[in-house]
């Protein structure tokens, strides 16, 4: 039977260890503003995900008898120049933001950035040199210009390609589904997203590759991929999370800018950038719109504003919680 | 350090050549025929063919690229496709000058607001004012230009009539105030953040306590011991900020109707005016690289502990 020894009673008196991630979560939750921001972000994203369910009208439905209306019980945020319901369009616009954030983050920052960073940091030598030089060339471009240039040049080619695929396979609706837009935006944002993440991961790996536990793993004959993914990667996760949370706001804003110039999401599909661009006539009419129909400009802008602000607050808090030594 | 500078200076032309090749390649990849674009409606197939020949568009890409690089080395960036036959440099230079003035004004705004406020927030750590400053700056930072620009115009120009609503009148005109604020305020938020962090770091140092213990006045300790040392890391951020500003004034130029380089390059992208675009990217990248080099070197002068290698 069990007989309690002195040591085990001491152990029992200690507070229960909750595990690394649960500790972090508990610390994070204690930061009220960050926690509220996280709830706000989730709420906004849920609005976007459930857009088809919570829409009150059809986002394309025009009603020329009800144009430029202020907020009312029928149109919660009012209507635009074509009489389309602003609330519905904002909600669908958020869905676009959600899709683009996820696709460009998973491909650019997480997949490319992390894997290239691991390789560059671990193997060093000429691979590292080449990767770093390529990154330097890319970061020598003014950001927004490079994104716009890529989107403007690639869009016609990718649309053409999608049409060819439609013709040869018989699948229809590929172009009209908006997939082309997402691919174009995803590729255009690549140069922005991969290099920062790559440099971050590389820097961490450069330190970790000579750590004793990694040397031990190598001495035991562990394969290189296993060392990279099982021993090094888990120790780089914290800075990656922090960097992602700061980056998401920037990605959302870039999509807005691209769509504002008509290079991102194409009408009739709504996006926050498309809405801002249409309402202000590409910036030209901003002032008169803000004066006469502020809700038309503010509805999409406040969402973007809240998203960028909240992600920054969350990023700050995560930075404090995950990298306590950096303080 | 000399070796470092030389190495960086030697790498710069290579970097620019690669950057130029990238834009050049994008130009050939883009749909639309420059010769056709140049001629517009008057184009007959024969004329297009002759124009292509004259421009050398039928040569292989590497040949065209090296011809371009050779011309650039002689200071010739080619002729614009859109603005008939005018040399690119002649079109870009005045626009670039406008954008530079605007961005310098914005940088001044950012520094004048950001550094003192960041320093003040750090000194007030532990009181309610510190988080209040940090959060309100973050709110301003997150505010999209699409809102800031029309809001400032509406408030200061339309309502109060303090400044003209839009247009461009040079560095010393009233018109520059609003666009400079629009770009400068988010920049100030970045400076507040970094200045606050670096001040906090310095405040905890022993020499600051020693200075206080010696009986030096608060003013002298704050400015001679704390602020001057806290400014060091800010230098690097200046480089990044300059970089971000270069293309960042694009939307602002659009809304305020400023004839700057952002506007020009945007038009060039849509009109497929690749000579203008390539030149713009080259000049932009070159200025960025040089600015960063100057900042690196300035760093070693301000802080002799740092050695470049």
Automatic annotation (TrEMBL), chain A:
Its main location: membrane. It is a multi-pass membrane protein. PROSITE patterns: ABC_TM1. The keyword Cell membrane applies. It is found in: Cell membrane. Keywords: Cell membrane, Membrane, Transmembrane, Transmembrane helix, Transport. Residues 99-315 form the ABC transmembrane type-1 domain. One of its GO terms (biological process) is transmembrane transport. Signal peptide: none annotated. The keyword Cytoplasm does not apply. The chain crosses the membrane at residues 33-54, 98-122, 134-154, 174-195, 236-261, 297-318. One of its GO terms (cellular component) is plasma membrane. Belongs to the binding-protein-dependent transport system permease family. This is ABC transporter permease subunit. It comes from Candidatus Lucifugimonas marina.
UniProtKB/TrEMBL annotation, chain B:
It is found in: Cell membrane. The chain crosses the membrane at residues 9-30, 104-122, 134-158, 170-192, 231-256, 276-302. Pfam families: BPD_transp_1 (PF00528), BPD_transp_1_N (PF19300). Keywords: Cell membrane, Membrane, Transmembrane, Transmembrane helix, Transport. It is a multi-pass membrane protein. Its main location: membrane. GO terms for biological process: transmembrane transport. CDD domains: TM_PBP2. Signal peptide: none annotated. It comes from the Bacteria. Residues 96-295 form the ABC transmembrane type-1 domain. GO terms for cellular component: plasma membrane. InterPro entries: BPD_transp_1_N, MetI-like, MetI-like_sf. Belongs to the binding-protein-dependent transport system permease family. This is ABC transporter permease subunit. The lineage of its organism: Bacteria, Bacillati, Chloroflexota, Dehalococcoidia, SAR202 cluster.
